[in-house]
Design goal:
The complex is a heterodimer of chains A (about 110) and B (about 110). Chain A has about 110 residues and is mainly beta. Chain A is built from no helices and nine strands. Chain B has about 110 residues and is mainly β. The chains are: A mainly beta (about 110), B mainly beta (about 110).
Chain lengths: ~110, ~110
Amino acid sequence: DAKTTQPPSMDCAEGRAANLPCNHSTISGNEYVYWYRQIHSQGPQYIIHGLKNNETNEMASLIITEDRKSSTLILPHATLRDTAVYYCIVSRRFQGAQKLVFGQGTRLTINP
Amino acid sequence: EPEVTQTPSHQVTQMGQEVILRCVPISNHLYFYWYRQILGQKVEFLVSFYNNEISEKSEIFDDQFSVERPDGSNFTLKIRSTKLEDSAMYFCASRDNSNQPQHFGDGTRLSIL
């Protein structure tokens, strides 16, 4: 699976949009971009995933560049509860018993 | 919303003892996973399980580890003879048969003394 690069930490003011970048320059054509987050020591929580089109759900938006070498997760109105470690994972589409390979992620702190 | 549940939330065990960590995956899910996270480190894949057999396992998952789905609802991870370095958070995950993501439980904190 392709590796990803994320900044180790970011800060964002409460109520503002949090934009978390991820580089995945070696992504291949059949690999998706997945985002999870981990609040404290809780289990990772799925946020969103995409292939090449931008995606939006009730939690976040995912913007993938046209060459698919990078992406940005957007939390439109960050709250204190969004403080967490965010993981960008590139993996083949969830088929079969597909494992997830976690990196160090980005520690996002939402400030009041 | 259905969720993956894990018990116990914290397990303290003497080194060399056997420990069984329990998970109840989401009811209609078919793929099951164990991951672990040593304090301050990354979440690491241990094993995946489908159709009553192991699909893939990592180098961490050696002969001391085993998994079982003893009935239609539980999925267990057994460590036969625990070592100090087995101390970690252990997360269970599951997913269904379609193109859906894995859903994680909140983990069991295993402390080996």
